[in-house]
Amino acid sequence: MTTDAAAMTRAIELSLLGANGCAPNPRVGAVILDPHGDIVGEGWHERPGEPHAEVHALRAAGDRARGGTAIVTLEPCNHHGRTPPCSATLLEAGIARVVYAVADPTSDAQGGGASLAGNGIDISSGMHERAARAANQEWLTAVARRRVHLTYKAAMTIDGRIAAEDGTSQWISSASSRADVHRLRGQADVVIAGRGSVLLDGARLTARDAAGRLLDHQPLRVVVDSQGRTPPDAPVRNDDAPTLIATTAEFGAGDDGRVDLESLSRVLFDRGHRGALLEGGATLGSAFLRAGLVDRLILYVAPLMLGSGTSVINDLGLHTLADATRWQLDDTTILGGDVRLSYTLEDK
């Protein structure tokens, strides 16, 4: 027999299998327990337009689902989109109980729990909510703020430098850290970098495995280039993945005369993207931070010290300690000789 809590932990694990290619839909995992509490079906949402996690799990369970329990990381949807509502599918399957972690925040899909309860299904919500939110944080943040969730990634020395005084920066981080960056790219909908960083490093911004082979999922590559001067033959414009050159002509200009980053973030959301990885240098990263558009920081700290050179963050316009933004440390991982620190911005 499997407890509801253990089944929800498994459902959260399953939801992460949908990290690539889910957008604009959420990452969702589902587990079906038969009336005796044994797991008889598992599923996760793989791609938009295809069956949701509950449907995959119910198909695996078959008749054994009748009278059982559905454990789901997100409230079952209650609307007709490209697929039927999961609330109706659960009813048809004869499910007696539904336990979900996070309420659906979207106006078109919410209400599945109430619909099921109105049809006599025993409903419970909030189990392992924090863990389920963390697994789906890009989508939840994006739909709440109507812009892409942004992770700012940087590799730096112990003293916070991303390049030496002469401009050299390859490689500050270890091979293990660089492999982890490709993992992050493979999970992102969008990778963003500035024109200067792209041209200086000859970056392709693609997601590759340890042997250099392209992964199946490639994010949209966005080069922030106010005047659109990225050369047609730049490596970032090859055929390995789609590329968008973000200019002021298309996205408007901010107060500094450069690309309006809030407009860019909202347009990317409107085009169906939910999670973006920012790999720009200190200038672009600081601009996104000043605009309040960064939701997560991932810092690879190498066991090096320079004492001078380019700092990871430029002036943010904060001149007193009371104005400092506060970040919550979520994870610390050793990668080779580096330390990866993952932070999320605390709500004020």
Automatic annotation (TrEMBL):
<feature type="domain" description="CMP/dCMP-type deaminase">
    <location>
        <begin position="2"/>
        <end position="116"/>
    </location>
</feature>
<dbReference type="InterPro" id="IPR050765">
    <property type="entry name" value="Riboflavin_Biosynth_HTPR"/>
</dbReference>
<dbReference type="Pfam" id="PF01872">
    <property type="entry name" value="RibD_C"/>
</dbReference>
<dbReference type="InterPro" id="IPR004794">
    <property type="entry name" value="Eubact_RibD"/>
</dbReference>
<keyword id="KW-0479">Metal-binding</keyword>
<dbReference type="InterPro" id="IPR002734">
    <property type="entry name" value="RibDG_C"/>
</dbReference>
<dbReference type="GO" id="GO:0008835">
    <property type="term" value="F:diaminohydroxyphosphoribosylaminopyrimidine deaminase activity"/>
</dbReference>
<keyword id="KW-0560">Oxidoreductase</keyword>
<comment type="pathway">
    <text>Cofactor biosynthesis; riboflavin biosynthesis; 5-amino-6-(D-ribitylamino)uracil from GTP: step 3/4.</text>
</comment>
<keyword id="KW-0862">Zinc</keyword>
<keyword id="KW-0521">NADP</keyword>
<dbReference type="InterPro" id="IPR016192">
    <property type="entry name" value="APOBEC/CMP_deaminase_Zn-bd"/>
</dbReference>
<protein>
    <recommendedName>
        <fullName>Riboflavin biosynthesis protein RibD</fullName>
        <ecNumber>3.5.4.26</ecNumber>
        <ecNumber>1.1.1.193</ecNumber>
    </recommendedName>
</protein>
<comment type="similarity">
    <text>In the N-terminal section; belongs to the cytidine and deoxycytidylate deaminase family.</text>
</comment>
<dbReference type="Pfam" id="PF00383">
    <property type="entry name" value="dCMP_cyt_deam_1"/>
</dbReference>
<dbReference type="InterPro" id="IPR024072">
    <property type="entry name" value="DHFR-like_dom_sf"/>
</dbReference>
<dbReference type="InterPro" id="IPR016193">
    <property type="entry name" value="Cytidine_deaminase-like"/>
</dbReference>
<keyword id="KW-0378">Hydrolase</keyword>
<keyword id="KW-0511">Multifunctional enzyme</keyword>
<dbReference type="GO" id="GO:0008703">
    <property type="term" value="F:5-amino-6-(5-phosphoribosylamino)uracil reductase activity"/>
</dbReference>
<comment type="similarity">
    <text>In the C-terminal section; belongs to the HTP reductase family.</text>
</comment>
<keyword id="KW-0686">Riboflavin biosynthesis</keyword>
<comment type="pathway">
    <text>Cofactor biosynthesis; riboflavin biosynthesis; 5-amino-6-(D-ribitylamino)uracil from GTP: step 2/4.</text>
</comment>
<dbReference type="InterPro" id="IPR002125">
    <property type="entry name" value="CMP_dCMP_dom"/>
</dbReference>
<comment type="function">
    <text>Converts 2,5-diamino-6-(ribosylamino)-4(3h)-pyrimidinone 5'-phosphate into 5-amino-6-(ribosylamino)-2,4(1h,3h)-pyrimidinedione 5'-phosphate.</text>
</comment>
